[in-house]
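ok trying again, last paste got cut off:
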Amino acid sequence: MKYFELTDNLFDITEKYPQTLPIFISNGFIQLADESKRTTFGKALQLNIAIMMRQLDQDNFVEAIETAITGSMIEPHDAETVYVKGLLPCPVRLPLQEYLDEVIAEKALEGVKIVADLKAASMGLDWMKDEIAKVTSVDQLDDIYISAGFDMFFDQEYFGIFIKSGEFSDPIQWNSINSDFDNEKISLKDPLGRYGIIAVVSAVFLVNTEVLAGRPVPQTWLELLDPVYEQSVSLPVADFDLFNAILLTIDNNYGRDAVRALGRNMLTSLHPAQMVKSDRMKMNKPAITIMPYFFTKMVKEGGVMKAVWPKDGAIISPIFMIGKNSDNKHITEIAGVISGAKVAEILSHQGLFPSLHPTIDNRLPDGATFLWLGWDYIEEHDLNSKFADCQQAFNESQLVEKIVV
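nice, full thing came through this time. structure:
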C-alpha cells in the first residue's frame, strides 16, 4: 500500500484523501459523513479493524480506496524529463510541432527526454484546467506551459498561486525584446519577471465596403463604437482568448460604456475562417469583422473586403510562456528553443503573430501599433472578475437591442 497503512485510522486517511469518503460511507461507515463524528469516530478506528467490523474483503476494499485516490490525483513528474504543455495558434501548430519534434529527436540522442503535449488553441483550455485542478504539489505540474490570453495563468485557482509563490516565472533569457513591443507607446516585458511573452495575436478590422453602404470605414476602435455601425459588427466571441482581451482592453482604454457600445454594434459571432468569406453570406452580412491579423491575408485582392489596422492600435492577446523554477538545466534549454529565433520566425512570418524575439522583423504594416492592458492593470485587478463585469455589460447591451427590435 503506497498511500496509507492498514494501521492508519479512518480520520487520517479521509483527512489526507477526502476523495475516499464516499467509499467508506457507501460501505457502512455513515458516521464519517458527519464532520464532528468523523473526527471522534474516525480517530478511534483503525482501517484493519474497520474492515473486520464490517466483514469486508480486505483486498477489494483497499483496492477501492486506492483507486479513489489515484483516480483523482496526478503523480509527480520524472525529474529527468522536461514536460511541455499548452496551446498553439491553429495556423502555426503543425509547423511548430514538426520543428519541436526534430528538437525532441535530437535531444533524445543526447539522453534528454522531452514530453510535449501541445494542442490547437481551438480546443480551448478546459482539458488543461481539469488536470491542474487536481494538482496538490508543484511537482505534479509540467515544466513549461504555453497559452494565449489572460485566463488560466492569472487565475488563482489555477496558475496564479504558483506564479505568486515564485514556483513559476518567465523562463525567457533574452536581454531585450523586439522594438515593436518596447517603445514609448508599449512595453510588454514583465518588470516583475513573472510572465514571458513569445508573440501576440493581433485583432484588426476586415471591412466589407459593399455592406458598409456609404458609411465611413472605421479607422479606430472608438470609431467602430459609433452608433452608425449598430448591429453591423462580427466579433470572435468563441475565441475566448482574443475576445476576453478585446473586452478588457476596450474597458481599460475607453470605459465601460464603450464595452456596451461594442455589444450594441455586434451583429453576429463568426469563426475567422467564416469571417473571410462573410461577403458570400446570404443573410446577416457583417459590415465590419474583428479578426486575427493572420486571416486578413486570406482575403482576395481587388474584392469588396478591406483590411484595416486600427490607428489607435491592434488589440493584442499575448501568447504567454511560463516555466518552473528548478535546478534542471534542461528546462532553461528547452525554454530557449521555444523562445528562439526559429520558433519566432514561424510565429511571425508564417502565422502573422508578431514575435517579441529581439532579432525578428515582424513585417508589420507601416505605422502599425498595438493596444494592450499593461502590467499595472494586470497587477491591480482580478482579471476574471473584470472580464465577468465586462461580459455582463456587453450582454446587457445586446439584450436591450433585442427588446427594442
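cool. Residues 383-404 form the longest helix (22 residues). The chain has a mean pLDDT of 88.
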